[in-house]
Amino acid sequence: MNELSQLFYLHGIGYEFTKYTGEQIFFSEDTRKRALQCCGVDTNNYNKIAQLNYKLDVEPWMQLLPNVSLIEQTDFYLKVKIDDRQLSQTASVSVEQLGIECEFTNLDDLIITGEYHFNGVRYIEITLSLPSIPTGYYHADIRVGEQHASTEIWSVPERVFQVEDTKKTGLSVQLYTLKNNERLGIGDFSDLLTLVDLCCEQNMDYILLNPLHLLFCNMPERASPYSPNSRALLNPLYISINLCEDSKNNAELAKIMQSNEVTSLLNKCGQFINYEDVSCVKYKLFKALYNHFELTASKPRRDAFNTFCDKHQPTLQTIDSQTPLFDYYLQWQAHFQLGLCQERSKKGGMAIGLINDLAVGCAGDGVEFKSQRSLFADNASVGAPPDPWAEGGQDWGLPALNPQSLAHNNYSFYRSLIRENMQNVGGLRIDHVMAIRRLWWCFENNGQRDGCYIYYPFEHLLAILKIESHINQSIVIGEDLGIVPPEVKHALSSSGIFSNSLFYFEKQNDGDFLPLHELPPQCLLMIANHDVPPFTGWWQHDDIAIKQQYHLIDDEQSTQITNQRVDEKTRLLRFINATANLTLTIHSDAKSVYRALSQCLAGSDSRLFALQIDDLDEQKYPVNIPGTDKEYPNWRRVLTHTCEEIFANNATLLAAIDSIRKG
């Protein structure tokens, strides 16, 4: 192996991958060099390449311990690297936080788990058996003879946090789409409280939310929750004015509520959210809330605010603002109201409660990127290789994290990101979970679009998910749609992480849908999500008509897609009729087919089954059309009915599904 090839390997630059067709694709050296250059490596400086190889390959063997030491709770072994001439010396380990002091006098008797030869010296890795250590992160000191080192021990449970092993039913919802009881144009935490109560009445176990990440208040039309300003901060537009204590006896607020601007918004009931209008009005109301807090807040409330700011200081200080205390106040209120919703869900009997959603990346001009700039690669964005739904591959335009930089400060960035997104919820869905193992990078190479896979410190990122899930009592769902390496599927399954299955894509090799008994048990099963048409629209071909309406496809493409859709529907009917012993036909109405399909899938062994509120509302318009930005109003479509009306209209179906799942 030459030095450049060695650096490709050590730096996580991929060599090949298996395409969805089964074809093995190899990346050219030129492509791999460009990926290294995005990581700040001068691929023409061979002295620098040699230095990096030494740092990544040799240097770790010269140190007793790395900065982070993973200790699996199956054995509690601490792995230490020594020169084999040190086997005659004694070793000691101290973990002061836990009162642990261990002595090892016979290093010769210890298990050797690795070796490395350099300059005629044999270095070995030995395992020191430690007592049981609780889940978490701990500072440890070690001595071997006269050599001393420190490390941060991560005590890693075998699996992520688990709930009772029974079938769970829930609802998936894009929060902003809910009909707003306050009539301010966007679904908020008050509407979520209402939805929680309705779900509890139907014995549901969870509500899966869209990412609640901070977007851009100065550019409110940037509405995608999957291209956020910051993934560690919440979107204030979800704050309910009426739920806020500072709305009481607030003369300034009352005056603004009587203004023409607010009155106009209150009287609007369009199909799509006007974020400019909503943001303008809500931020004026927020200012009135904050002013009231400043003038009238009691000492306990001020203390609560200060405690929140202290707890979340590293995240809050990333906010780029002329009025930081106002923005901190909004984050406080958003956290408080989200917490109210989770508390209500648990009191109402939900096994899990709210499930948050973590986007795969952040916007390249947002506060997350700017505050962590040194962690990101240069001129590289993340996306996906060619697949059946995007033959040209995808570039999501989100900046790529440099895998080598992630280890900075003992992975503090990723730890904080996961911890913040597990606050006030009972579960976390991780969008494109394959990113903890590898990500497809997109970059320009000699004036042409290029890309390859980059590998990440999988073992450490998975360990963080396991630890944080237990600390925060949160289940973990990994969205694993697309090309997933076998080792990722195995690791997620053995770690107790739920996979995510869309029934639309669960097919056999011949194109027929999988039989019910073959649907995976350790998964979140859904008929559809935000990236595919709602069921009614799909059955009635409304999504095809919408694409024509917005000039996304031409007449010839429409005919081709329609013919494919008819075939898909025929296969779906074959699945439903065989599973439920029904006689539905291609002429059956969408509602009847949806209800039959939902009850079929409720009978699967999948531990998590989610209905989509858009489907219960019989929506025709998709909430998002992948591959579009300005062409279609993505992330803006609201529901037609209130939550109460939707549940009343589907009471029989919901009761039937509850009976099937609990039976």
TrEMBL record:
<comment type="similarity">
    <text>Belongs to the disproportionating enzyme family.</text>
</comment>
<dbReference type="InterPro" id="IPR017853">
    <property type="entry name" value="GH"/>
</dbReference>
<dbReference type="InterPro" id="IPR003385">
    <property type="entry name" value="Glyco_hydro_77"/>
</dbReference>
<protein>
    <recommendedName>
        <fullName>4-alpha-glucanotransferase</fullName>
        <ecNumber>2.4.1.25</ecNumber>
    </recommendedName>
</protein>
<dbReference type="GO" id="GO:0004134">
    <property type="term" value="F:4-alpha-glucanotransferase activity"/>
</dbReference>
<keyword id="KW-0328">Glycosyltransferase</keyword>
<dbReference type="Pfam" id="PF02446">
    <property type="entry name" value="Glyco_hydro_77"/>
</dbReference>
<keyword id="KW-0119">Carbohydrate metabolism</keyword>
<keyword id="KW-0808">Transferase</keyword>
